[in-house]
Write a structure and sequence with these properties.
By secondary structure, the chain is α+β, with helices and mostly antiparallel strands. Helices cover 47% and strands 18% of the residues. Helix 1 crosses helix 2 and helix 3 runs antiparallel to helix 4. It holds the Pfam family NifU_N.
């Protein structure tokens, strides 16, 4: 597949998650709720996690922002649902490294649709948009473990 076709496909995946977000909404009381924002551009994300016995049983999000931040939140919640907390954090680390253009030592990480966001790495101002939901998830897991 040519670069232009791949770029078009990735844009379509991002816009699909933006226009048809997966896991948008909230969870019942007792779930973790983490609010984060990106003051640079105004993106605001609220992540809801239900973590039981070291596993992300459910994940949802609410918020306002650009197509990158909201599609990333949609993709992330879809990817971490049913994963162990350890795997969810590994995915986040791998995603962060991808956004920074770094080589990762992590193997066997399948990001699925999330790979569509790899082009964001070319635009430093947008990296915070893409990583906002992931940082919120990390913060929530960290707070729960304390």
């Amino acid at each position: 597949m040519s670069f232009n076709n791949l770029d078009t496909l990735y844009r379509q995946v991002i816009m699909d998650h933006y226009k048809n977000p997966r896991n948008r909404g909230s969870l019942d009381e007792g779930s973790l709720t983490i609010d984060m924002n990106n003051p640079t551009c105004g993106d605001r994300i609220q992540i809801h996690l239900q973590v039981e016995d070291g596993k992300v049983e459910d994940a949802k999000f609410e918020g306002e922002g650009c197509s990158i931040s909201l599609s990333s939140a949609s993709m992330m919640t879809q990817a971490i649902k049913g994963q162990s907390v350890e795997n969810a954090l590994k995915m986040s680390k791998y995603f962060s490294e991808m956004m920074m253009g770094e080589e990762s030592e992590l193997e066997d990480i399948d990001l699925g649709d999330i790979e569509a966001l790899q082009g964001v790495a070319k635009f430093p101002a947008r990296i915070k948009c893409a990583t906002l939901a992931w940082k919120a998830m990390e913060k929530g897991i960290d707070e729960q473990e304390k």
